[in-house]
Amino acid sequence: MKPYLSIIVTGRNDDYGLRFKYRLKLFFKSLLNQLDNWSISAEIIVVEWNPPRARENISSVLKKWFAFTPVPIRVIEVSPRQHRNFVNSDRIPLFEYIAKNTGVRRAKGEYILVTNPDILFPGKLIQFIANRQLEKNTFYRIDRIDYKLPSGFNSANITEQFKLAKRFAFSLHTLGCGIRLRTSLPFPIRMQLGYINAVLMRRLIRKQGKLIDRVHANVAGDFMLMHRTQWNKLRGFPEKPTNTYMDCYLCFSVAAIGLRQYIFPSSFSLFHLEHTRPTTKRPKISVSQLVNDYRQILNHDQSPILNNSNWGLSSQKLHEVRIAK
């Protein structure tokens, strides 16, 4: 029987952003517990892209952590040799969105959620999915709250982690903008003020002619959920030799083909554990180009389908390790 939901993430065990394994463990521990509690028919796919030879594979790490899993975990490997076939492979060790497409292309679920392994999902979001309220002609978006942990904090207790996420929340990503939060305020007031500031920020960005608000494209790589038919119709995220804004482009394309956008209420927001980012220069797309393409795609002056039929490495045979329940 095919699962109702496929959850796709990607990564490599190179300690990206520092403490990668800690964030990975929190993600899996929380998510597996939620899927079990709500009896969701699901699979989790990890696309391990260009794994470092000197480090343990993610599949081995997961097997050590979890003797039992309530849903199957599939680890699909894209080898260093396959990685080197891409332009900019010497500058980008992990092509995030090509990797995610690789997982989407091989997913078995009716609905496919693409996210990242440093996210905590609120219980009410998992409950919504468990109630099978998803609709085929809708794509689902959500806000994100960033938080930092105190230096030296190592606990993997999930209940404690959610409490700390609220206590140390410092940033909000919502429709059209990102907002710094007043960390000295209680969490509910902090969030209320954050959303008020977001309204003001959108007005400012609109005056500058750079506002993207016909679709919620902000940090879409952390949460993009829709029916498998739509993923296949659009051929996933654009497969370009950069990781910049590729998630935004898929949002533009989804809106352009007429799918209904559903943005979850603010109380459903994701929590994202903040980490460091590479300081080396990597290929990027400019904001001006992004805004121009946004207008062209939504005005049907540019095709919403940005990949060929071989998207997601569909013609390549990839090694897979299955961690069965």
How many individual domains?
A: 1
Please outline the major beta sheet.
Answer: 6 strands, mixed
**Overall 3D shape:** globular
CATH architecture: Alpha-Beta Complex
The span between the termini is 14 Å
* Range of strand content: 15-25%
Number of strands: 13
Mean pLDDT: 95
Series of secondary-structure elements, N-terminal to C-terminal: EHEHEHHEEHEEHEEHEHHEEHE
| Cα radius of gyration in angstroms | 19 Å
**Count the helices. How many?**
10
Give the uncertain stretches in residue-range form: none
> Which CATH top level class fits?
Alpha Beta
Structural class computed from helices and strand pairing: alpha/beta
CATH topology: Spore Coat Polysaccharide Biosynthesis Protein SpsA, Chain A
Instruction: Give the CATH superfamily.
Output: Spore Coat Polysaccharide Biosynthesis Protein SpsA, Chain A
Helix content: 25-40%
In order across it, which strands form the biggest sheet? 10-4-1-2-3-13
GO molecular function: methyltransferase activity
Organism: Candidatus Gottesmanbacteria bacterium GW2011_GWA1_43_11
Keywords: Methyltransferase, Transferase
Protein name: Methyltransferase FkbM family
